[in-house]
Design a protein that fits this description.
The chain has 357 residues and is mostly beta strands. Helices cover 2% and strands 43% of the residues. It has a four-stranded antiparallel sheet with strand order 3-2-1-30, with no helix packed on it. Strands 4-5-6-7 form a four-stranded antiparallel sheet, with no helix packed on it. It is globular. The chain starts with a strand and ends with a strand. The relative contact order is 0.11.
Length: 357
Amino acid sequence: MTRYILLATAKGLVIYEKQGSEWIYWAHHFLGISVSIALQDPHSKDWWVCLDHKHWGPKLHCTSDCGKTWREVTAPKYPEDAQVELGVSATLKYIWTIAFGNTPGVVYLGTEPGGLFRSQDHGAHFELVQELWDHPTRPEHWFGGGRNYAGIHSIVVDPNQDHHVYVGVSCAGVFEANEQGGVWEVRNQGLKADFLPNPLAKAGHDPHRLMACRSNPLVMWQQNHCGIFRSVDGGHNWEDVTDKEERGRYGFALGIDHQNPLRAWVIPATSDAQRIALNQSLFVMYTEDGGKSWHERRNGLPQNHCFDIVLRHALDVKGTELVFGTSGGSLYYSPDDGASWQSLNHHLPRVFSAKMV
């Protein structure tokens, strides 16, 4: 079976192919157009990409033949009466992420300004999840982090129930839909938001990346603006598992082991104001005991004068293999849980997402 790495970059979709034991630069699509994310539908094996045109706005494209041909999928639209704030109509600004349901054809999109869209027919029709859009915390407690408005960047679908969904919102926090999808609950208990007047506020938190272990979905992880957090009860309560030296207190990327709920990887960065590699050294932190202890993985990564960071979707874990791309256009691969790293490229555009398929 042919294997690929899909890289969403600021200048198009870059694809690497596994040839023997080597990853080889294979193809480039949508040259010059920013791609916010690229993922594979686990059912159809189609590749989906979200484009961020400077003039035409967000666009969706899909391929069933590894990029030989592409078809455009109509991007969602907010209802005419939807307002992002009083007197300001909601319009699609950015597609942050895609998630696929357990039922073939179910597709979720996370967008700015904080809307979750759902399709049940492979993207032929998308509808705004109105119950989340109308959540009572939105008017006062949803706001933009690095962008003008709040954005849904993480979507976690319960592997046993399509309507049971979690979202990570920057900035608002974690929200969970019940199994019917009609009621959304705030799941920020135990988080802290040092940038708010009340760090323990119900909403207004900034999870940078949210994930759940597929083999044990009650175990959830997040790399937050203010630390690394873990939950063992489906997000009802979060525990701060940041390392004692607080190396992982700030960062974006998160990878987890979907078979072993105790294992996770993060890539530290400095503060929000600087956003460079911690101490100008690029390294990965790894835990195998649920965050009780963390270990640095530096072998093969630049340790001096490095300004790169790794964005929220730009780290992927598949078995013992890891791959990540950086804000400065470097690409690294590890075959051994991150113990050692190989450089695949140093001259790519800014990498927004990396996915092994």
